[in-house]
Every structure is written in C-alpha cells, then in structure tokens.
C-alpha cells in the first residue's frame, strides 16, 4: 500500500557505471566493519525505514534519506549490489530493495540487533522469507546490550536526530534533539522503553510533545546540559554517524568545545561558534564524505 501512495521519479543509477563509487573497493571490507554496519543499519531502519509486503506477495525494504545524503544512499546501493533510488516530491529520496538475495543479506546483518517495536516488521519479513523461499531464518530477540557498545544509536540518530546551536546575545548553547512517535500503530506497542534507555544513557529526561495539527503526540529527547552533551560526543567519537549529520556533528562539537572551555567569551571564540552555526544543517553547502572510507 505504501508503495502505491508514493509519487516518485526513478533516479537512473547503475552502481557499476557510476564513477563516484569506484574509489573504494568492497574487497577492503573486514568483519569489524560489517559489525559496525549491521548495528548502524538496524538503527537506521528502525528510525527511517519500512518493510512492506503487498497483496501480490511482493516485498520492499525501504530507507528514507534527505536529498543531500544521496551519496550515502549510493554507497548502500553499491554495497548490496542491487536496488534502486527514487526521488520523492519532498526534499528526500528513498533507497529500496526488492531482491530476495539482498533482503536476505540485510536480515542476516540486522537480525538480533533491533530494539524498537518495529521488530514486528522484521519478524513478518522473516516469516515471509521462510514461507515463500524455503528458508529457516530464526527470529532473534531484541538487543538489550548497553547502547554505548555498538553503533545502533548512531544509525537511529542519523534517522531522527538533530544538532543545532542557539546563538543570540542572551543565549549561546549547543543543543540536540531526537523525536519519535509514541506508539507503533501496527501493534500499539510503545516506543517508551527504548527511549527511556537512551535517556538513561544520556542522563536526560524524556519529554512528551503534542502536535495538535496532526492530532498525535511524540516523545522527544533533548540535550542542553554540558554533561549529557559530553556523553553524546564521547559516544559518537567512537561510533560515527554515516550521513551528512556527521559534518553537522563536527561543527556542533567544535562550538561546544569553545563553550566548555569558555573561549566563546572571546571575539575569536564567538566567531568560531558563529561560523560553526552557519555551516550546519540547511546552511551547509559543502559536503565531504571522507568519513565513509571504511564503507
């Protein structure tokens, strides 16, 4: 149903012919990088992905990206070998996989690494694969390991997180927010348990935000204090973001270090913070993808 509702035009991508993707060889992949990717991909799918099985027994596994992250979507396309990218009317693109071979590979990567109610979609996909393609894939339980142990949260942040800087005469502060709906509609299961775990890790409180326009409520995680900001920085220094939010994170971290060291009180420090703010999010015009060298 979701597939039919989308209005899109096909982006003509042939990963074997695109020069952008030839610099790094898939042969350089090592097991450790696959482990990083598997946890990250689970978090990304749980944040901005979906799995659809239509009434014609066709499967789509899709992940939504901001249009500025087209390069990252291409890297995933190159890594898995089959799939396609579509451009939506909004400022976004969607990476879609329909190949049974690729979907099986994705399942093998993320199985046992999901943490949210969206595991329901994964279980239905596994049931479909086992029934229609004579497979025997086990349905592994949710991952309850410490969040700081792997890159799941990095993937979830790339999907739903936001770094920003409040810069005014009265306020100079680095902030972070992560928003998620309260209830997973297909099972009516709450997202609160996993969001509580994230809050516990970051030492912040979970907030409820009501959106009257859409007649629903969302959970939101906000980071505004320096202790929690440092926890997040330490985590992301060890578990990198993949999307262009990584570049925003670097600017955000640069500004935070000025504030933490009180050098923002100097003209030079304030200029550094101001420059960082003007190189983030929608104001960013330059993109460097060196952080994806391993992928």
UniProtKB/TrEMBL annotation:
It holds the Pfam family LAGLIDADG_1. Coiled coil: none annotated. GO terms for molecular function: endonuclease activity. It comes from the Eukaryota. GO terms for cellular component: mitochondrion. InterPro entries: Homing_endonucl (IPR027434), Intein_endonuc_central (IPR004042), LAGLIDADG_dom (IPR004860), LAGLIDADG_Endonuclease (IPR051289). Keywords: Endonuclease, Hydrolase, Mitochondrion, Nuclease. Residues 41-207 form the DOD-type homing endonuclease domain. Mitochondrial DNA endonuclease involved in intron homing. This is LAGLIDADG endonuclease. It comes from Clavaria fumosa.
């Amino acid at each position: 149903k979701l597939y039919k509702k989308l209005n899109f035009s096909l982006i003509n991508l042939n990963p074997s012919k695109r020069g952008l993707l030839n610099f790094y060889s898939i042969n350089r992949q090592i097991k450790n990088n696959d482990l990083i990717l598997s946890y990250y991909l689970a978090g990304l799918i749980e944040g901005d992905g979906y799995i659809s099985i239509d009434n014609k027994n066709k499967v789509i596994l899709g992940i939504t990206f901001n249009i500025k992250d087209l390069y990252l979507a291409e890297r995933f396309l190159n890594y898995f070998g089959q799939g396609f990218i579509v451009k939506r009317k909004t400022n976004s693109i969607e990476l879609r996989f329909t190949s049974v071979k690729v979907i099986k590979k994705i399942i093998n990567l993320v199985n046992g690494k999901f943490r949210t109610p969206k595991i329901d979609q994964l279980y239905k996909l596994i049931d479909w694969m086992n029934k229609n393609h004579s497979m025997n894939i086990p349905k592994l339980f949710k991952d309850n390991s410490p969040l700081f142990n792997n890159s799941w949260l990095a993937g979830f942040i790339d999907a739903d997180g936001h770094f920003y800087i409040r810069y005014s005469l009265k306020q100079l502060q680095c902030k972070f927010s992560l928003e998620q709906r309260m209830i997973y509609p297909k099972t009516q299961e709450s997202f609160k348990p996993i969001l509580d775990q994230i809050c516990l890790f970051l030492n912040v409180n979970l907030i409820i935000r009501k959106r009257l326009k859409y007649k629903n409520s969302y959970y939101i995680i906000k980071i505004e204090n320096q202790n929690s900001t440092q926890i997040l920085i330490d985590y992301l220094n060890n578990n990198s973001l993949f999307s262009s939010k990584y570049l925003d994170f670097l600017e955000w971290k640069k500004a935070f270090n000025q504030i933490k060291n009180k050098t923002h009180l100097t003209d030079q420090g304030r200029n550094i913070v101001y420059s960082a703010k003007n190189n983030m999010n929608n104001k960013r015009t330059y993109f460097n993808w060196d952080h994806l060298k391993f992928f």
